[in-house]
Design a protein that fits this description.
alpha+beta; D-Maltodextrin-Binding Protein, domain 2; nine-stranded mixed beta sheet; 17 helices
Length: 419
């Protein structure tokens, strides 16, 4: 082998690859930036996001995107470790509550306004962007808004001669009829039921769960919430949250469910496709209280850029593409909710994709003037687990509702103190 060939071979062997830096190829002599992207979701979300990334790479051949994704529980725990060790992805799908948890002073994520020459922030109103600010710093872009919603199988209710329930009393009246055939009117996971109980207690007491950033409920309101859940279970309005199974919506063992706007298709898509008339109902309330009072909205999910990124411009290009481009909008549809981006929403409207149960639910949410902005404390997993545990103490006759409420109150105060 000649000396010239040996030198070329040696150079090829030692050419470096840089993560979120650059990689150089002998053939093109062109630097390629590597950007990492992470998200959570089901198979459908994974598929369309990967397709969107492929479209982005076609438009930006000098950028390579490395993807990381999983279901929510694994994503949350892994992201927690990565953010603590400063190894998180350059572009991340994040939960609204993470802003308070990981960026209370606004320094936990990149300031996106420093990238406003790349990210088209004019697609969002100031009110929408406010959800992504901490301490005045724009940490994240909300993709869509979310709220717990009542979904009902109107076909089933019609078969039993029942009208759509609007008030709390209506729930129990319907349950008296449906439970004779082993059918629950409603169902839902623990967080949904917890927020539903907050709504009931707020409407009954006239007090807000939070007063600004201060926990505002007393033992009395918590006792109301515990007794409400106990009654829902005892009078067969819904099963205990531990026994909730999404498939039983399809099996018609539940005539409805409490779920997020963003979960509408995931929970009810099969029923809708089978021809059942599934509707997003108005928010439950007392007769003398406006529907929507005590109900809360928040961003369904958000995108942020790592404060540690070494390629902020490339990360900004990717974030803008995921939020604002026609390509992503068309692939994503309304799976993450109705997009807040003006350009994305206009494109979906133009091609006739703003329809279906999720769109109906989002319209009820967006057109309701009585909803409040959710405080991240309301989604604290330890508090929700404590509430369900307190309810079970009462259900299984291990404690009176007053005792359980007092224990829950002290537990919440301790959790808040340690945040």
């Amino acid at each position: 082998m000649s000396k010239k060939i040996k030198i070329i071979s040696l150079l090829c062997a030692v050419l470096p690859l840089f993560s979120c830096g650059s990689q150089t190829t002998v053939h093109s002599h062109k630097e390629q930036k590597i950007v990492t992207l992470s998200w959570w979701g089901n198979d459908a979300r994974n598929e369309y996001t990967i397709q969107a990334v492929a479209e982005f790479e076609k438009l930006h051949p000098d950028i390579k995107v490395k993807c990381s994704y999983s279901e929510w529980s694994g994503y949350e725990s892994r992201s927690r470790v990565q953010m603590m060790s400063n190894t998180e992805s350059d572009v991340m799908q994040i939960n609204f509550a993470w802003l308070s948890e990981y960026s209370p002073d606004g320094t936990g994520y990149y300031d996106l306004e420093k990238l406003s020459d790349i990210i088209d922030l004019t697609n969002y109103s100031d009110d929408m962007l406010e959800y992504g600010r901490k301490n005045g710093v724009l940490n994240a872009i909300p993709i869509a808004m979310n709220a717990e919603t009542i979904y009902l199988n109107k076909t089933m209710l019609n078969e039993y001669g029942l009208d759509i329930p609007h008030t709390w009393d209506d729930l129990f009246d319907c349950a008296k009829v449906l439970s004779k055939d082993g059918i629950y009117l409603l169902s839902g996971p623990s967080k949904s039921v917890w927020l539903y109980a907050i709504t009931y207690a707020e409407q009954l007491s006239g007090k807000k769960f939070m007063d600004g950033d201060k926990f505002n409920f007393t033992e009395k309101e918590l006792e109301t919430m515990i007794e409400f859940y106990h009654r829902l279970v005892d009078e067969n309005v819904m099963p205990q949250v531990e026994y909730f199974r999404k498939i039983d919506i399809d099996n018609k063992l539940y005539a409805g469910t409490v779920a997020w706007v963003s979960d509408a298709v995931n929970y009810l898509g099969t029923l809708c496709d089978s021809g059942e008339n599934v509707i997003a109902a108005e928010y439950t309330s007392f007769p003398n209280i406006e529907s929507g009072t005590g109900w809360y909205a928040k961003p369904a999910t958000m995108y942020a850029v790592s404060k540690n990124t070494e390629c902020p411009d490339e990360a900004a290009l990717l974030l803008d593409f995921l939020c604002n481009s026609r390509e992503t909008a068309e692939l994503q549809g309304v799976e993450k909710g109705i997009p807040l981006s003006k350009s994305a929403r206009e494109h979906l409207d133009k091609i006739g994709m703003l329809s279906g149960i999720q769109y109906e639910a989002s319209q009820i949410m967006e057109n309701n003037p009585y909803m409040s902005k959710m405080n991240p404390l309301m989604e604290n997993a330890k508090i929700i687990d404590g509430y369900i545990e307190a309810c079970n103490e009462v259900i299984f006759d291990k404690a009176k509702s007053k005792e359980a409420a007092e224990m829950l109150y002290e537990q919440i105060l301790e959790i808040i103190e340690n945040l």
